[in-house]
């Protein structure tokens, strides 16, 4: 059943097929996306959920994200279905089960390893992917796998606007000519504690903002693969991972994340500040995916 925009044209062009989508991963963002889809029964249809082994268990939570290259499609197991899942029949037993449900698009919200491990199979089956673990592109081996799979197709990789929402602006500026891109990401110290930042700055003795890393987007994403997806998206849209400058800051005065984007382009300077965003609060990344899915299903897409 088409979305609202599709209903407007039904008398002239016939019903638009309802977009079928699936989730790879069912953590916080995955649940937000599932809830958003369930709230729009006339919009894209969620047809399957596949999650990592260990998700929902104490061991899986303690282990956190797996490292790049350590997860294959065979390591994925059925989703731990909870009352938050719109339908109990959504859990997939394996990647083949997900493919058999014929989704038009799969949203990856699991890990860099899950993205790299499943993209070749899904894209070869003609299924488009929306990746959220963009730090996978920072690893040369992972980037090579993803680009090769996308080149072979027929499925495509569609990068959402994410938490920053400036990818379209940067892509347009890059087409006109970009001279430089600088991205600053600031978090409260608590967010950085379980990352390499804990060895780079004394997070317990900060009385103001401290920059503890300056370097390329590729170097930043490889050091902080679970925190730099926004910076990786900025780099992919603009000058690339090696030419995009990233600065990371620990700021005890912030209630949540803050992003700053500065770029010099032939079209003029670009300046964008987002946040500080409350934590917890609405997740722009999840909403950017919902907007992308809605756009793919709509008669008039933005």
Short description:
By secondary structure, the protein is an alpha/beta fold. Helix content is 34%, strand content 21%.
> What is the CATH topology assignment of the largest domain?
Rossmann fold
The end-to-end span amounts to: 20 Å
pLDDT average, as an integer?
Answer: 83
- Total of domains: 2
CATH superfamily of the largest domain: NAD(P)-binding Rossmann-like Domain
Uncertain segments of ≥5 residues (pLDDT<50)? Answer: 1-12, 53-86
The Cα radius of gyration reads: 20 Å
- Beta strand %: 15-25%
Q: Level of helix content?
A: 25-40%
Q: How do the strands line up in the largest sheet? A: 3-2-1-4-5
Query: Shape, please?
Result: globular
Family: Belongs to the L-aspartate dehydrogenase family.
GO biological process, one term: NAD+ biosynthetic process
InterPro entries: Asp/hSer_DH_NAD-bd, Asp_DH, NAD(P)-bd_dom_sf
Domain Aspartate dehydrogenase: 207-282
Walk me through what this model shows.
The chain has 302 residues and is of the alpha/beta class. The chain has two domains: 4-161 and 283-297, NAD(P)-binding Rossmann-like Domain (Rossmann fold), CATH 3.40.50.720; 167-274, Dihydrodipicolinate Reductase, domain 2. It has helices spanning 4-8, 10-13, 28-38, 58-63, 95-100, 112-124, 140-152, 167-176, 189-192, 217-223, 229-237, 284-297, and strands at 20-24, 45-52, 76-78, 105-108, 128-131, 178-187, 210-216, 245-250, 258-265, 268-274. The protein has a five-stranded mixed sheet with strand order 3-2-1-4-5, with helices on both faces. It has a five-stranded mixed sheet with strand order 7-8-6-9-10. α3 links the parallel β1 and β2. The radius of gyration is 20 Å and the shape is globular. The model is unreliable at 1-12 and 53-86 (pLDDT under 50).
């Amino acid at each position: 059943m088409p979305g609202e925009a599709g209903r407007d044209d039904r008398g002239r062009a016939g019903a638009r097929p309802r977009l079928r989508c699936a989730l790879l991963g069912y953590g916080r963002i995955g649940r937000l996306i599932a809830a958003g889809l369930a709230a729009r029964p006339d919009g894209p249809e969620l047809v399957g959920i596949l999650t990592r082994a260990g998700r929902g268990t104490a061991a899986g939570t303690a282990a956190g994200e797996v490292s790049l290259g350590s997860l294959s499609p065979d390591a994925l197991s059925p989703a731990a279905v909870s009352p938050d899942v719109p339908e109990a029949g959504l859990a997939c037993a394996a990647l083949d089960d997900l493919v058999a449900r014929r989704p038009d698009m799969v949203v990856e919200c699991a890990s860099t390893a899950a993205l790299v491990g499943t993209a070749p199979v899904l894209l070869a089956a003609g299924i488009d992917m929306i990746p959220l673990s963009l730090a996978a592109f920072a690893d040369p081996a992972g980037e090579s796998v993803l680009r090769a799979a996308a080149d072979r197709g027929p499925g495509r990789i569609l990068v959402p606007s994410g938490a920053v929402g400036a990818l379209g602006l940067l892509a347009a500026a890059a087409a006109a000519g970009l001279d430089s891109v600088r991205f600053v990401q600031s978090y409260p110290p608590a967010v950085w504690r379980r990352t390499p930042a804990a060895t780079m700055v004394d997070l317990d003795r900060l009385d103001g903002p401290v920059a503890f890393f300056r370097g390329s987007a590729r170097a930043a994403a490889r050091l902080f693969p679970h925190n730099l997806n926004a910076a990786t998206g900025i780099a992919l849209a603009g000058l690339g991972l090696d030419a995009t400058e990233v600065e990371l800051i620990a700021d005890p005065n912030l209630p949540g994340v803050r992003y700053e984007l500065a770029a010099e382009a032939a079209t003029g300077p670009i300046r964008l500040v987002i946040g500080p965003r409350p934590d917890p609060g609405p997740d722009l990344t999840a909403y950017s995916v919902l907007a992308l899915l809605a756009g793919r299903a709509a008669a008039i897409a933005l």
